[in-house]
Design goal:
Helices cover 48% and strands 15% of the residues. With 686 residues, the chain is an alpha+beta fold. A hairpin with a 2-residue loop joins strand 14 and strand 15. Helix 3 packs antiparallel against helix 4 and helix 13 packs parallel to helix 15. It starts with a helix and ends with a helix.
Length: 686
């Protein structure tokens, strides 16, 4: 059976299992979950794992379930347990990891790294579970690669790898890899380039200037290109020039080329580091210069001689190798400079063949219209690095051709997809974001969930707002033309209403440019249009409210602004009056309730939701109870915080009194001693 037919068969089977699973997931979480064995609990909780928040969520006591998962996980001896336990252990870990501390995580990392498992005859799922667990706890890349290679050396076949895992395994399937162990490094590419036609050529590098400095963090990338000994491109952090002028070249006549890359950083983040080299010329639109157009110095081999240099413990180290061309998007932050790539390349090819096939893409939408995320968007910074620029562009074009697939994305997911896949495909990446935004033009705010629950005192609707803030940074600082495109092409919907995800992004963009006044004026001009009425007007009022709420926040483009949740309540109440659709009025009441909750006015928030009951469509009435449950959690959390803060303050007070008591005893001041002892007893409730 061919690989493609195998994967088609798997797709059919997967769809069938997904249908069964969806029926199972409709059931409530087991009432007797605390009495289940570790294995039964792991498989019972696994369907409730939500990749958008990287945690377990459902209609149950989430904190208790997470703690139980963590407790069960810690019962396993990771150093000596059989490999057959890994599927259970992995499921327990990802359900309970929030409740494990750094010391425990470090011990897990050490135990996994030290194991030398034999995979001969073992099921693929056991190997996968171990590797995924290693990835979660940040085991070094080289050690994870060794584990994947060991699986194949023990007889594992490409067909054993589940189709959705092909890209993840490809990332790791490098024999004897070496990752540059430093945040500062240089690369020099040298060789000759051979033009196919005589005429004027332009050389171009990537357009993204991701260099920035923020407090104790900095990332700086510089790049230069020289043709025939003359520098034609010089891109620095402060002046990123991405194109040369016209250069006359003769068909078939090789000319020397040198490209230099310098990276200085205090830590390479995801989705910023890249090295791309394009050209355009007679009959050639902008494209990555192909391998066959390069020859290494001295001839005989296609490609470019690459010298990677860095320091390790104060000593210079370097690797010289031949790179096919310059088409690197190190979106994972890992720069791999050595390793045998045969397995990697085959897995990438298999992944591309299968996961762009019509049958696979069709399988992402089940018969009930439920969308499953394409696996290349789950950890996009890993998947994008495996691709060429043309593949990243093609994948984005697939998403545009099947826009329903974008409905599986949260705001955070969409932001990560844009940042990871934009290299070599900048404009298409923005088109994907704009399309997603238009499909979520009236995006509703959310009560805090998961990790955002514990940040609920820092602002409104953080799960969405943080995503748009992090989207504003690349479109403002790194590709300013994209901020202009967002405003010109995607802010206003065809019916004249406001696209809220774009408006939120632009609000943060203008704020970081210290020009929020201009954004406010634009919104005021929209609202001054008398033809803008009803539901269309309500969206612009929401955007105006957001601008007002953040107006006093920091202008630092890398620090999330705090909003003032009740400063624009009048604008939202006006929007309720303007809106015509009862469901929109219902959603606007939710906007206000969320802001009241963020301000700690919990009873008033519940009252607003009670009033909104009459506006809710029948199918949404159940959501009100869920929102009230969120308010209850937030109120309890605030009380916990207040109790904890009071206890901390009281402890500090007691310690200060005790220090004064010691001094009074030392000087023999009996009156002071008695006074301090009485104060200490009172503070301790004695």
């Amino acid at each position: 059976m061919s690989l493609l037919n195998y994967y088609k068969l798997f797709s059919i089977l997967f769809t069938f299992l997904l249908m069964l699973a969806n029926n199972a997931f409709a059931q409530t979480f087991p009432q007797n979950w605390e009495q289940l064995s570790a294995s039964d609990f792991a498989y019972a909780v696994d369907p409730f794992y939500d990749p958008t928040i990287k945690g377990t969520a459902g209609d149950f006591d989430e904190e208790a379930v997470r703690q139980h998962a963590a407790n069960l996980f810690l019962q396993f001896d990771l150093e000596s347990m059989p490999v057959s336990d890994f599927p259970v252990v992995y499921r327990l870990y990802r359900s309970g990891w929030w409740n494990l501390n750094e010391e425990q995580t470090s011990a897990i990392r050490t135990a996994l790294s030290s194991r030398q498992d034999v995979w001969t005859g073992r099921p693929y799922e056991e190997s996968l579970s171990k590797v995924m667990l290693m990835d979660w706890v940040d085991v070094p890349f080289e050690r994870m690669s060794e584990e994947v290679i060991n699986f194949f050396d023990a007889g594992g076949q490409f067909e054993n790898v589940w189709p959705d895992d092909l890209q993840d395994y490809a990332r790791l399937a490098i024999r004897n890899p070496q990752v540059i162990p430093a945040d500062d490094f240089t690369v020099q590419w040298r060789g000759e380039v051979i033009p196919p036609q005589t005429g004027q050529y332009k050389f171009l590098i990537g357009s993204v200037n991701a260099s920035h400095t923020d407090l104790d963090y900095s990332f700086a990338e510089s790049m230069s290109v020289s043709i025939n000994g003359e520098e034609v491109i010089s891109a620095t952090p402060t002046q990123w020039t991405s194109s040369s002028g016209d250069i006359q070249l003769t068909a078939g006549q090789a000319v020397p080329i040198q490209v230099d890359l310098t990276v200085k950083s205090t830590g390479i983040p995801h989705s910023v580091l890249h090295a791309l080299l394009f050209w355009e010329g007679p009959g050639i639109s902008k494209t990555i210069i192909p391998t066959e157009r390069f020859i290494v110095p001295g001839g005989g081999t296609t490609g470019l001689q690459a010298t990677y240099t860095w320091q390790n413990q104060g000593q210079d180290e370097s690797i010289v190798r031949v790179d096919k061309n310059l088409d690197f998007a190190w979106t994972s932050g890992e720069v791999k400079v050595a390793g045998e790539m045969t397995l990697h390349d085959q897995l990438v090819a298999n992944a591309w063949q299968y996961q762009t096939s019509t049958s696979f893409l069709d399988s992402l939408v089940d018969e009930n219209g439920k969308i499953r995320m394409h696996s290349w968007t789950i950890d996009p910074h890993f998947s994008a690095q495996n691709m060429t620029s043309s593949q990243r562009q093609s994948f984005l074009e697939i998403l545009l051709s099947r826009p329903e697939l974008l409905d599986a994305f949260s705001a955070f997911r969409m932001m990560y997809v844009y940042k990871s896949y934009r290299f070599g495909a900048e404009d298409v990446a923005l088109d994907v974001f704009g399309t997603w935004a238009h499909r979520h033009a009236n995006l509703e705010p959310d009560f805090p969930l998961g990790p955002f629950l514990y940040k609920s005192n820092q602002g409104v609707d953080l799960e969405n707002r943080e995503a748009f803030f992090h989207m504003a940074s690349p479109v403002t600082q790194e590709l300013p033309a994209h901020a202009d495109r967002l405003q010109d092409e995607f802010l206003e919907m065809p019916d004249g209403s406001c696209c809220l995800p774009v408006a939120y992004t632009l609000g943060y963009s203008y704020l970081s440019r210290n020009n929020l006044t201009a954004w406010t004026e634009l919104l005021e001009n929209k609202l001054a249009n008398e033809s803008l009425t009803g539901d269309q007007r309500a969206g612009w009022l929401i955007a105006r409210a957001h601008a007002h709420e953040i107006r006093l926040s920091t202008r630092n483009p890398f620090v999330m602004p705090h909003s003032r949740p009740l400063d624009a309540r009048d604008l939202l109440e006006t929007a309720i009056l303007e809106a015509e659709d009862p469901e929109l009025k219902f959603i606007l009441n939710k906007h206000i309730a969320i802001r009241l909750t963020a301000a700690g006015l919990f009873d008033e928030a519940r009252s607003i939701l009670d009033e909104a009951t009459n506006l809710a469509p029948v199918e949404r009435l159940g959501e009100i109870a869920t929102w009230k449950a969120s308010i209850d959690k937030l109120e309890a959390l605030q009380m916990e915080r207040q109790t904890s803060q009071a206890a901390t303050a009281n402890q500090a007070y007691v310690e200060k009194l005790q220090a004064r008591l010691v001094k009074a005893q030392a000087r023999g001041d009996d009156v002071a001693v008695q006074r301090y002892q009485a104060l200490i007893s009172a503070a301790q409730g004695e």
